[in-house]
């Protein structure tokens, strides 16, 4: 009897132990499932964003391992030279200008063309900026580029884009020192074959030494490189062409610049009517490019979404307001500000698994659109803005009226600081000034980052790289191109791969890049910069050109 009772007690204890283990594992599973559900809830806004953007823009996909973030101007120059030297079939460049003293870079390009006779070169720059200093006594940026055309006339194409906003009598009356304020070709694309460097940097010595910008290298990009090449070719088809030799009847050192009959339109500068017709044709060209690539990529992108290789989504945006192309102001930026708001209110944030979702924003020139500022002030999104201090502005202590430009940007910054204080959002929206001795600041872009509560790990969800400063000028006057890169760690296996490659993962690189920029801001410097009455009046007069 006692033996039977002992066996019953032992059986009960074993059953109780198994039940306890079962309940414990069930609770662990439930907790894990909840965390996983919350994680997926957190990424639903990102998935929704990707779907919305795919309906309007070309959607490229890239392996994470194919993207490298560069931090220093010297790195940018070395990678640019390597890119050019490695070209097998084509080199394609879009920039505001090439510095008129960059003979070394021109020689690198010339050598690449000399070594490989199958390489063709296309360079797109801005007409006004590239001919600014030209006279009978002084050469300019275009003069230097002309030497490449003279050496390789059949394999080199140099195009100069002229804004449609300066035409007729206005063009004849506006002094050369001020004509660039009407609009510029501002894209910064540096490509060879299937490799690309996207940046906000131009091609002159300060951008290779002590002018801080941002740079992202993308390798093996078969489709994206083709899209960007076609974008440059399209813009070239509505641009002037630089030919070898002097323009007959215009004296020594004159540039031979022509408008080819094969262009898609007549030039915009003759009259208002010519400008309007030019803009109508250009609008259709850029719309067709966007729609054709969007449709082309839809099926391909759907297949890649199921790939086990961790990939990112890349959406190129064009902002060309004179041509009524508004990818940035009409689509991308409003949706990203809304995304930060959604993530800040997601179940993951409410469960305290995420400490903070932050929109980090930088531009060397503080001139945020009113619409962007209103969205920030009306949202609960945390925003940190890095801009150039007056001393780090490229116009600091320059000659003539341009010496007032740093103070003009400070005035715009002061105005927004006052709005933030009035809304009592000083803890939520912060502006930092970048200042590094002997350097100027030209970086531009944004990062949407999250900090996890459990370990303090910061990760990047979205970033942009390209030419836009997100200001009035970028929105309304210039020709801009950005890449918006969206990291999608929505699959557990991809999240593991992202985190296991801590030093090399794209998210880590982007977080480190932002930290390297923040290393030169003074967090205590929160006071308004003193600005004189004349500068305030001057700024209000020209603010849509800043």
Top keywords for this entry?
546 residues; alpha+beta; Endonuclease, Chain A; 9-stranded mixed sheet; 17 helices; 20 strands; globular; lipid metabolism; CDP-diacylglycerol--glycerol-3-phosphate 3-phosphatidyltransferase; EC 2.7.8.5; phospholipid metabolism
Q: What's the name of the CATH homologous superfamily of the largest domain?
A: Endonuclease Chain A
Largest sheet: 9 strands, mixed
How many domains make up the coordinates? Answer: 2
Question: How would you name the oligomeric state of the polypeptide chains in this document?
Answer: single chain
CATH fold-level label of the largest domain: Endonuclease, Chain A
Class by alpha and beta content: alpha+beta
Report how far the terminal alpha carbons are from each other.
97 Å
CATH class of the largest domain: Alpha Beta
The fraction of residues assigned to DSSP E strands is 15-25%
Arithmetic mean of pLDDT? 88
Which residues sit in consecutive blocks of at least 5 with pLDDT less than 50? 28-36
Rg (C-alpha, Å): 27 Å
How does CATH name the architecture of the largest domain?
A: 2-Layer Sandwich
Shape: globular
SS summary, helix count: 17
Number of distinct beta strands: 20
Amount of helix: 40-55%
């Amino acid at each position: 009897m006692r033996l039977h009772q002992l066996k019953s007690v032992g059986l009960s204890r074993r059953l109780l132990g198994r039940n306890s283990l079962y309940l414990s594992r069930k609770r662990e599973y439930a907790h894990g499932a909840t965390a996983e559900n919350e994680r997926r809830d957190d990424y639903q806004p990102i998935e929704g964003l990707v779907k919305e953007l795919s309906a309007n823009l070309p959607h490229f996909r890239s392996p994470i391992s194919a993207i490298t973030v560069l931090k220093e101007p010297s790195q940018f120059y070395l990678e640019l030279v390597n890119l050019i030297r490695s070209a097998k079939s084509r080199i394609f460049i879009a920039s505001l200008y090439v510095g008129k003293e960059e003979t070394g870079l021109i020689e690198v390009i010339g050598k690449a063309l000399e070594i490989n006779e199958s390489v063709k070169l296309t360079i797109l720059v801005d007409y006004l900026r590239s001919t600014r200093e030209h006279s009978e006594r002084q050469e300019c940026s275009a003069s230097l580029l002309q030497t490449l055309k003279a050496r390789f006339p059949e394999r080199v194409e140099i195009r100069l884009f002229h804004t449609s906003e300066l035409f007729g009598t206005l063009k004849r009356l506006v002094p050369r020192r001020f004509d660039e304020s009407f609009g510029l070709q501002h894209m910064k694309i540096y490509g060879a074959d299937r490799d690309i460097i996207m940046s906000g940097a131009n091609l002159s010595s300060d951008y290779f030494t002590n002018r801080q910008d941002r740079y992202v290298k993308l390798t093996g990009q078969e489709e994206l490189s083709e899209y960007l090449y076609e974008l440059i070719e399209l813009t070239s088809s509505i641009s002037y062409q630089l030919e070898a030799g002097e323009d007959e009847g215009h004296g020594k050192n004159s540039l031979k610049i022509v408008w080819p009959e094969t262009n898609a339109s007549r030039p915009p500068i003759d009259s208002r009517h010519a400008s309007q017709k030019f803009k109508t044709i250009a609008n259709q060209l850029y719309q067709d490019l966007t729609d054709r690539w969007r449709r082309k990529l839809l099926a391909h992108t759907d297949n890649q979404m199921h790939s086990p290789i961790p990939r990112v989504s890349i959406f190129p945006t064009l902002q060309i307001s004179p041509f009524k192309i508004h990818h940035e102001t009409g689509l991308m930026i409003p949706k990203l500000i809304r995304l930060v708001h959604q993530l800040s209110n997601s179940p993951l944030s409410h469960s305290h698994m995420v400490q903070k979702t932050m929109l980090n924003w930088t531009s060397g020139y503080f001139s945020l659109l009113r619409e962007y500022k209103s969205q920030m002030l009306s949202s609960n999104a945390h925003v940190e803005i890095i801009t150039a201090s007056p001393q780090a502005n490229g116009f600091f202590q320059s000659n003539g009226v341009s010496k007032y430009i740093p103070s003009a940007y400070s005035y715009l910054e002061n105005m927004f600081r006052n709005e933030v204080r009035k809304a009592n959002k000083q803890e939520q929206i912060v502006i930092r000034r970048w200042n590094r001795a002997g350097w100027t600041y030209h970086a531009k872009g944004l990062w949407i980052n999250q900090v996890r509560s459990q370990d303090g790990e910061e990760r990047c969800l979205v970033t942009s790289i390209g030419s836009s400063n997100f200001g009035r000028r970028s929105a309304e006057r210039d020709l801009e191109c950005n890449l918006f890169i969206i990291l999608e760690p929505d699959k557990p296996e991809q999240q593991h791969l992202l985190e296991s490659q801590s030093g090399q993962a794209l998210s880590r690189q982007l977080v480190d890049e932002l930290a390297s920029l923040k290393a030169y801001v003074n967090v205590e410097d929160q006071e308004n910069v003193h600005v004189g009455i004349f500068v305030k009046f001057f700024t209000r007069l020209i603010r849509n050109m800043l």
